[in-house]
Amino acid sequence: MLTSQDLPSKTSSKNRTMLAIGDGILSVIGNTPLVRLTKAIIDTPLSVYAKLECLNPGGSVKDRTAYNIIAKAIEAKIIRPDTVIIESSSGNMGIGLAQVCAYFGLRFICVVDPKTTVQNISILKTYGAELEYVTEPHPKTNEYLQSRLDRVHELLSTIKNSYWPNQHANRSNPDAHYSTTFPEIVSLLGDNIDYLFCATSTCGTISGCAKYVRQHRLGTKIIAVDAVGSVIFGGVSGKRLIPGHGAAVVPALLEPDLIDQCVRVSDLDCVVGCRRLVRREAILVGGSSGGVFMALERLKKSLPPHATCVLIFADRGERYLDTIYSDEWVEKELGDVSHLWKERKADT
Prior knowledge:
This protein has helices at 62-75, 92-104, 118-127, 144-158, 172-189, 204-215, 267-280, 287-299, 327-334, and strands at residues 34-36, 47-52, 84-88, 107-112, 130-133, 162-163, 195-199, 221-227, 261-265, 308-313. By secondary structure, it is an alpha/beta fold. The longest helix is centred in the middle third of the chain and has 18 residues, at 172-189.
């Protein structure tokens, strides 16, 4: 039976960002909420907070990256009004770039593959992006990433005045998180952040946050959450069902000396984590966020009591309704695993 004690406490006004009128949609990228998880992590004294990057206007942490890369290139006069932006993306970076390019009136071509979800394709088209489709994985890696990158280079060689943001190697990617993401967390929680859990793909987010920790001499331990089948931290490349999590090649932006620990999570972990978050916390997030949650679940008993942990939830869950949140898809790909998240209904 619900009582007043079950109602969540509101953030005090002194810790809450003042509402403001933004100058265009890009002005509200960042300053995403930080919420304490009160129901998902049980049987532990840890203080666990989620950074809701899913609430960026384009729906993911990649809004920060896309805006910073394009803005810096415009400032440097590398991008002009007639420049064509060309990038490879499985979804979120493409959407972030499509949003930014639509605002600046820039032509954008996004190279996608069969793993790109129907929802993401629709969003890209709605923003006005032109799509180039890669249909076959690269023969050497058996992954689509290299095939997409090869197509990007073909387009760059044939389209005059074109620009490749190159999210996998552009330093403006981690710089976006060094200058905004982690400082936002510190502004709310102070310097006493014990652990940061972050999913890895291009490694822009984790490298930028980790660099901030190192240069400001904070005590935060950086936990990289990688996908089983990813080669970012070694191992053999394998099949991965969740787009945008893990990689078939080691990203140029990876700075392994800044990472304290790597936790590998499976596709099943991601599904279970997402289902538990939406059922327990009413937070609807994407696959890598479920993986980040399960990484903390795995480590929680080994962490110091009362440690403060921050989880970065990279994107929103609506883009995974046909996969992670589809019982039919889950059963087809992973079998009947619903017992892993079904819970007893609350007493009424």
